[in-house]
Amino acid sequence: MSQQRIVRVSLEHPTSAVCVAGVETLVDIYGSVPEGTEMFEVYGTPGVDIYISPSMERGRERADTRRWRCNAGLEIIVVMNSPSNDVNDSHVQISYYSGHKPLPLAYTVLYLTCVDITLDCDLNCDGRQNGSFRQWVWGPMVWAILLVNCDRDDVNCDDRDNYLEDMSVMVLRTQGPAALFDDHRLVLHTSSYDAKWARVFHACGPEDSCEAYRHVLGRDKVSYEVPRSHGDEERFFVEGLSFPDAGFSGLVSFHVTLLDDSNEDFSESPIFTDTVVFRVAPWIMTPSTLPPLEVYVCQVRNNTRFVDAVAELAMKAGCKLTICPQAENRNDRWIQDEMELGYVQAPHKTFPVVFDSPRNGELQDFPYKRILGPDFGYVTREPQDSSVCGLDSFGNLEVSPPVVANGKSTPWGGSSLGQPAWRVQPPVELFVDWLAVGHVDEFLSFVPAPDGKGFRMLLASPSACFKLFQEKRKWGHGRALLFEGVVGNNQVSTISINQVLSNENLISFNKFVQSCVDWNREVLKRELGLTERDIVDIPQLFKSERRKAVAFFPDLVNMLVLGKHLGIPKPFGPIINGRCCLEEKVRSLLEPLGLHCTFIDDFTPYHMLHGEVHCGTNVRRQPFSFKWWHMVP
Amino acid sequence: MSQQRIVRVSLEHPTSAVCVAGVETLVDIYGSVPEGTEMFEVYGTPGVDIYISPSMERGRERADTRRWRCNAGLEIIVVMNSPSNDVNDSHVQISYYSGHKPLPLAYTVLYLTCVDITLDCDLNCDGRQNGSFRQWVWGPMVWAILLVNCDRDDVNCDDRDNYLEDMSVMVLRTQGPAALFDDHRLVLHTSSYDAKWARVFHACGPEDSCEAYRHVLGRDKVSYEVPRSHGDEERFFVEGLSFPDAGFSGLVSFHVTLLDDSNEDFSESPIFTDTVVFRVAPWIMTPSTLPPLEVYVCQVRNNTRFVDAVAELAMKAGCKLTICPQAENRNDRWIQDEMELGYVQAPHKTFPVVFDSPRNGELQDFPYKRILGPDFGYVTREPQDSSVCGLDSFGNLEVSPPVVANGKSTPWGGSSLGQPAWRVQPPVELFVDWLAVGHVDEFLSFVPAPDGKGFRMLLASPSACFKLFQEKRKWGHGRALLFEGVVGNNQVSTISINQVLSNENLISFNKFVQSCVDWNREVLKRELGLTERDIVDIPQLFKSERRKAVAFFPDLVNMLVLGKHLGIPKPFGPIINGRCCLEEKVRSLLEPLGLHCTFIDDFTPYHMLHGEVHCGTNVRRQPFSFKWWHMVP
C-alpha cells in the first residue's frame, strides 16, 4: 500500500490521529519546534513502529532511543500493524532538546487509534483470497471477476434476475474500537462511469429474507454509507451489467473510504481509501472443435428425416438434442443464423450464454423464450444504424480453434470470422461478397485432429473437385451421374461427369470461386498462422446465380461437427462402383484423422433453399479447459 | 507487403493474371500437371522475377534456367516491380519434362499485367512521405495524422467548414496500362465504424471550383468507386470528426481495393488491397508553465481597475489581451470556468481549440460566437446524465507541466486534475469536497522555474501562514491588521494577527484544511513523481462556510501565470514596516525563481464572490515544442 498520510503535531496541545494498519503516517514536527531545539527524541507505546528517514533518500532507521539532530530533512514515519482496542490507546511522544542537555525543552504527544480496513474479493466456495485487488492482473491467481448476470434463475419472473450465486462477493473487513465509528464513516463508492457497468448489493438483513439484499451501487447510485450494524465483516454481492466491447474495457473499480466526521464545523475528510478492481468476464465463443453438449434443430414442414438423422448423430456423439417445434419457428429453419452459443466464466461459476443475432427472423423469440433460463444466459445487440443485412446472421460468425499467430497467443478461439455485428474475440475479416448468401460457413469449417495444431481447416475447393472428376473420367467413369439418388425432388436433373467437365461456364465460374477461396486462404494462413499442412481441400463446386455463388451440389464443408462425429450434407455425387465418389473422397481425407463421416440428406429442405446441415443446426459446447483470465491478451 | 495471391494455371489454355508491383504471386501448377511429369522449368520475360521455394521452409532460390523436380512441396513465386505498358505484355512459361529428356511433355503459359497501386499519406507542404501507412506507429516519422476540422475558416458561414488546408492529404497512385481499367475497378472503402469518425473528400473537379471536392467517404458512405479520370494520381482530403476519447481510440483506416470485374457472369473479386491508417490528433491542454500568447478577461459592472491591471500585466508579458464585453458576458466573470484553451497539432498544421465546458452560464455563447474562427477550433461536450455540477467548471480542469512519473513519460502535460467531464491527458483525481466551490485551482498552481523539473507546484498552506504570523507576533507585530487597505468595501472588518492566532475555531478549521491539502499533496507527489523540493508552500488561510472552506483572505495560489510574470490576488495582509507581510513572504519564495510578482486587487469583484484572479482570466498558450506523436503513450 503506497498511501501515506501526513499528521502535523503541535506544542500547544496533544494531537489525535487515526491510522490504518500497515499504512505509514508521516509525522511533521517542523511546524512547531520550540526555540533553541537542536535535537529530538521519539518514543512510541508498544505496537507503534517508528522510523526516522532522511526524506530525499531511501534509507530509514528504527527511531529507538537515540537523539536525532533536528533538521527539516528528517522525516518521522509511524506504522501500526494491529487495530487498537480503544480510541487513542497508543501514542507517540516527541521530546525536544537543546544540544545534549538531559531535560527536554518541551514535548508533543500524538495519540493514535489504529483500524484495519480492507476491501477484498472473495469466493463463495472456499473463501480463498489473494490480498491485493487494487490493480487487475491477468494470471492464475485472479479472482476479481464479475459475471454479467444475464440468466433467469426464477423462471416465473419476466425480468432478469439477481440470483446471488451468479454474483461475485466483495468483503469489507474493519477492525478497530467501535467508538471510533461514532464520528467516522465508511463509504463504499465508485465513479458514475463505472456505475453503468455493474451493480452492488449489500447483505444487510437477516439471511434468506427478501429484504436481506439492498441494491447500494449502480446507475445513479455512486456512493453508499456502510452501516456499522453486525460485526467486522460486511458482505457485498456484485454483478456485471454489460459485456466488454468497444465502448467498455471490462474493468470496474469500487472503493471504500474512511471519512473523519468528528468535527461538526468541518466537512468530512478522507483518512484512507482501499480499492478493488473487477473485470467483467467476456462472452466467449466456442469453436466447432470443442466437445458438444447439446444440439439444436428446428422441426419444420418437410424435414422429418433430416431431424431424425441429426437426432441419431447427436445420440452417437453422446449429446442432448433440443428440437424447436414448428409452432415456435414458423418454418424458419436457420437456427445457426438466429443465435450463437457461448459461455461466461468466473472462478465461482460458469454458464452458457446465447447471443441472439440482430437477424430477427421468424425464429427471433426462440433464444429469449426457450433458451434463457436458470444458469443459461442471454445477450443480444440491436442492429447498428437500424439496418440488418445477411452479414449480421450468425452463419457469418464463426470462431477458429485456439491458435498462436503473429507472435500473439489467442487461445480461446482465435478469431471470429466474417464481419459480425459484435466482436468479442479478435476478428479476421474475410471476403464473402462473391457468395449469394455470403456466410463464411459456406466455404470454411474446422474439425478436430489428433496431430498438428489439434485441428484442420476445411476449405471448399472447386480445383480439388475438378481434379477428382478428371481422374474419374480418365478411369472411364465420365458418364457417372450427379443427383441420381435425390429423393422426391423433381426440380433437379442429373448431370454426368463428362457434362460437368465440358461446361465451360461452370468451369470458368469455379475458377473464379477458387480465386475467391484462395484470397481467404491466404488471409487465414497469415492471420491464424496456418500452413498448408493445417488445411484440407474438400471437393466442391459452385454455380452462379445473378453473378454470385451458390453450392452446385450440397455444400460438404457446411457440416455439423460433434466431436469425432461429422454430419455432412449428402452430396449426391457420381456413383462409381456403387459408391458416391465425393463421399468416398471426403472419407479418405477425414477418416485418417479419426473422424466418422455421416452423410445427411438435406437436399430438399435445406440445400434447395441455399443452406445446409450447419445452417440448420446449432450446438452448445463445453467451455475451454483453460481459464480466459490465465492468458494475457 | 505481406499480401500474396495464388494463381492456378492450367494445361488447356493460357491463364491471365494481374499482379501488383512488389507483391508476390504464388503460381500453383499442381492442379494440372501432365501425366509422367518428373521435372519442370520456368521461364519469365524480362521484368518478371521468379523464385522457387520449398513451401514449408524459409529459403528460396532464383528459378533461373534450372530444371526442378516436380513435387507438390515446391512453390513458384512470381514478382514484378514495374508496371506493364500493355495488358498481358509479360508472361511466365512452365515446361513439364519426363526426367531429363530434352523435349517437354507440355507447357503452360501465364500472361501477366503488372500495376502499381499505393495509397499514401502526403504532406501539403513538401510532399514528403514515409512509405508504409498500413499500421500506425508512434515516432518522429509519422505523418498519418488527422485534425478534427473544428475551426471556422469562412466567418460568414454558420456551419463548421471543410477548409482544405486543415485536412490531411491521402494520395492514390496507380500506374499500369489504361486498358486494364476497362474491366477492373478501384474502390476506396472503410468500415461503417471508422466512417463515423472521419470524412474523405475527392479532388475530382477543376481546381478552385466549388464542385472540385466531392464528399466520398463518411457517415453512410463506406465505399467509393474511384473514377479513372485524370492521370495516375488521385488526391483525397481527409478530416477528423471527433476527438479521441473513451469510445474512440483515434485510429481510422482507409483501404483501396483493386477489383476484377472482367467477367460479366461472375461477381467482382479482389486482387489487391492497400491501407492507410490515420490517427486523429488529440486535443492537448496547455499547463500554466507554457509561454502565454493571449489573455482573456471579462469586463463586468465593477471590475474596471482589475481589467486595467490584467491588461498591464499582459503587456509586460508581451501577450495579446482580449476583453469580453459586458454585453456578451452579462456580468458572468468566471471565464476560467467557461472554457479551456488547448490546441491540436498535425505535421501540416497546428491551431488552438477552445473546449467549451458543460457549465453553460451567462458566458455560454462566448466560446462559440467569439473564439471560434479561422484557425481557431471549438469543441464541447454536453453534460453526462443531463446534470451539471460545479465540478464540470473548468476551474476544476487543470494540467500539470510535463512529468515523468511511475516509470511512464507523460510529456505533454501529465495529468488533468480534478474530475473533469472529459479526459484527454491521463487524469489524477484529487479530493476537493472540503472546498465550498470545489475547484483544484483554489489550492494548487504551477509556475515555471529555472531548475529542478522546470517548474514548482504551489500549494495553499495554512500551516505556513500560522508559522509566518507567529513569527510576526514574536517580533512585536501582533497588532498589525489584515484587510486594512481594502478599498470601497464595507462588508469586511479588519482583524489583527493576535486575533487570528487566538481564534480557536479558525485555527482548528485551518488544521482541517491543512489535512485536506496534505492528502492531495501526497496524491500529487505519488502520481506526478514529485518530491518536497518541487513544492512551495504559499501561506494561506481558509474559513468555514457551511462546513466547507473558502479563502479567508484573497487566495494567493489562484494566480494568473504569464511566463515569469505572475498576477497574484492582493492578499491585504498585515502591514509591517510599510509592507504587506504576506506579499513579502510570497516574493521571498518566488522571486528567487526569477519570477515577477504583481499583486492585483480582486477583493470586491472576485474574492467576495469566492473567486480570484485565476478564476477571472483565461490564457491561450504556445503549444509544446515537442510533437505529441513523437512519444509512445
From TrEMBL, chains A, B:
Q: Please give the GO cellular component terms listed in this UniProt entry.
A: cytoplasm; nucleus
Alphabetic keyword roster: Calcium, Cytoplasm, Hydrolase
Question: Which InterPro entries did the record assign?
Answer: Cupredoxin (IPR008972), PAD (IPR004303), PAD_C (IPR013530), PAD_central_sf (IPR036556), PAD_N (IPR013732), PAD_N_sf (IPR038685), Prot_Arg_deaminase_cen_dom (IPR013733)
- GO molecular function per UniProt: calcium ion binding; protein-arginine deiminase activity
Cofactor(s) required, per the database record: Ca(2+)
Sequence ranges assigned to domain Protein-arginine deiminase C-terminal in this UniProt record: 271-630
User: Where are the catalytic residues?
Assistant: D337, H439, D441, C615
Which Gene3D superfamilies does the entry mention? L-arginine/glycine Amidinotransferase, Chain A (3.75.10.10), Protein-arginine deiminase, central domain (2.60.40.1700), Protein-arginine deiminase, N-terminal domain (2.60.40.1860)
Looking at the record, the residues that make up the Protein-arginine deiminase (PAD) central domain are 115-260
Task: Name the CDD domains on file.
Answer: PAD_N
Q: Where in the cell is it found?
A: Cytoplasm
Catalytic activity annotation? L-arginyl-[protein] + H2O = L-citrullyl-[protein] + NH4(+)
Q: What is its EC number?
A: 3.5.3.15
UniProt domain Protein-arginine deiminase (PAD) N-terminal: residue ranges: 1-113
| Lineage top rank: taxon | Eukaryota
Q: What does this protein do?
A: Catalyzes the deimination of arginine residues of proteins.
The similarity annotation says:
Belongs to the protein arginine deiminase family.
Q: What is this protein called?
A: Protein-arginine deiminase type-3
